[in-house]
Write a structure and sequence with these properties.
Tetracycline Repressor, domain 2, 2 domains, homodimer, DNA-binding, mainly alpha, Arc Repressor Mutant, subunit A
DNA sequence: GGCGAGGTATACAGATCAGTATACTTGTGA
DNA sequence: TCACAAGTATACTGATCTGTATACCTCGCC
């Protein structure tokens, strides 16, 4: 909404520091003083740029969502086969997981911010619904049967893989295999 | 370890209040003063019983894990068919979700407590590994092919369903259906 | 009887939190 | 040139946090 305000160099540094700290240490556990110090900026500047900690949290999630969607869309573009495109978000998940071993930032944010009116809830919900819609569109293009059901199943697989990431389990490869199997069993030329 | 200490009536009230507050509002956001007030107890008593907030958090997760495992095992016992037993944890998930709409307490706890040496990490990891082992044992008993692979897939499905719970999506029924389909396709009398 | 465990009541220490106040500096563009 | 936007520097407010200190109460049990 008010994100049309141009971002200054200090604002970008603040946002970068907030992304790092909020994701690795948790939102409630990180204070604005620490973010200001890490970005080489005074607290006054932080408040001039973002208004409040809640707004900074919303900006953090929005920016993270933007980067993640770009990665997913790039992974889809990198595939040529329509069936491979459906499971391309799992390719992106492998890349993404390499530098993000603390699970899903949006699920984690919801865990710390129980108030449903907090902007984080809408951002997180939008992200998941966006991925579900993407799965459905790709499945439809690939000619899969029941693309809606398939999309929900792929979303659950995706989220389950992310959720188990901080645990001492390797679920990524198995989930990607299962996702491909589900898509192939629903694709028209595999039955 | 030191959980052999007998629990007093005040201790039980404290633990009950902590369970409710930690789960619904988040661990970092809830102070010990609030827990003491809610359980009708002095803060001094809380510290006499649990030593520190971190120990109380560990006790909260341990108790929650105990109740959840009992529910899962009861759901398995309620089924007679060996194939139905494999997907029984998804029956339990339906019951459990009715009163727990804030996702998985263990994933949420890891989101707020990034330090891997915190007891919450071991408790959460143990819970997931326990469920995975249970899936594998039930699948083996049911005569499923590749019970290890199947168990990991069922675990990811289970966690994905829990993780998407706070979102405006209904994933439970679809996941349970997929779980049953996976088990049936691996069971000996269905191929 | 008395003693000790468990609990109450209240106050406090020391740290940290989000957010504000005041005064100064610096670069840029009209 | 000069006005303005962006940022620096530092101090502060009031609230809240975990954890402790001190003094008292009240049972049950040896």
């Amino acid at each position: 909404m008010e994100n049309t305000r141009p971002m200054t160099a200090a604002g970008r540094r603040i946002l970068a520091a907030a992304e790092e700290l909020f994701y690795t240490r948790g939102i409630t556990a990180v204070g604005v003083d620490l973010i200001a110090e890490r970005s080489g900026v005074t607290k006054r500047t932080l408040y001039n740029r973002f208004g409040s900690k809640d707004h900074l949290v919303a900006a953090y999630l929005t920016e993270r969502d933007r980067r993640w969607r770009a990665l997913v869309l790039a992974a889809v573009d990198a595939r040529t086969d329509p069936v491979d495109k459906v499971t391309a978000p799992f390719d992106a998940l492998r890349t993404w997981s390499a530098g993000n071993t603390r699970g899903c930032a949006f699920i984690n944010a919801l865990a710390e911010l129980p108030d449903p009116s907090h902007p984080a809830h809408r951002i997180a919900a939008d992200q998941k619904l966006w991925l579900r819609t993407l799965f459905e569109e790709l499945a439809t293009t690939a000619g899969c049967r029941e693309p809606t059901t398939l999309a929900t199943r792929l979303l659950v697989l995706h989220e389950g893989t992310l959720a188990t990431q901080p645990l001492p389990l390797d679920t990524l490869s198995g989930s990607a295999d299962l996702a491909r199997a589900l898509v192939r069993s629903g694709a028209p030329d595999t039955r």
